[in-house]
Amino acid sequence: MNRATPTSPSPGRSASDHQPHWTLDWIDYPRIRTESVHDNVELFYLLASASFVESGSETYTRNLVEHFDAYPAISDWLQHQWEPEELQHGRALKTYVQTVWPEFDWEAAYASFFSEYSRLCTVEELEDDRALELVARCVVETGTATYYQTLRDFTCEPVLNELAEHIRVDEVQHYKHFYRYFKEINAERNLSRARILGALKRRLAELRTSDSDIALRHVWLFQPHFDAVGDVPFEHICQRLYHHVGARLPMEQAVKMLLKPLALPHRMEHLIERPLTHLARRVMAA
Fold this sequence. Notes:
12 helices, Ribonucleotide Reductase, subunit A, Ferritin-like domain-containing protein, mainly alpha, RNR-like, about 70% helix
């Protein structure tokens, strides 16, 4: 199909899109039980790094909008729904981190992160094929949706539970949008499962070496003093975090979401879901 005259996907919205979207005013930060989470080193790293990545969404959005400039419905949704919600996630997480860990210099750490992240966040990093980039987006949204579900269940702190659930719901909706756009474009393209699988594998391989890893490193560089951390090397911190998250991540849900773009026959999908879930758990625990 000629890129200059593509059929633009429909801008249809799900039923949940018509409900009022949550705002920062909904989050009762003064109600945070600081004493129950302040000394949780893993939680500090997970929240601070997530706040960095979400806060850098503006740069990433510009790249995606440019990449999908021939698809007005997609670029419009990215600019007017996806980006504002991602930036809101960043502000909400930043406020939580600053409330619980006021000794952490969030602004300086984020500036350090962004100076590196912005140089690496380029259009060239995206899949050349727009349909395959939508597959890659499904991988990212699968990761974020399951990540925030894990954060929600990581602690009994009620404000964090509420905040993480709001973000999780947003990320699930983002996944649904990207998946729908992929299906609409692929209805004309009819990409082979081999090519779709290739895009899935490439994006999965980048998850540990992309923005989250950069964010964790800059959190580590500016971390406040934790008795439980001391002079522990960055690599050991990462290993602890991957172990904690991997042990709690809803792998069954993640595998189901990742398999959807392949449009496998139901019987085949059912047969491979369980072994893939076990494999994913082993990889995350490694």
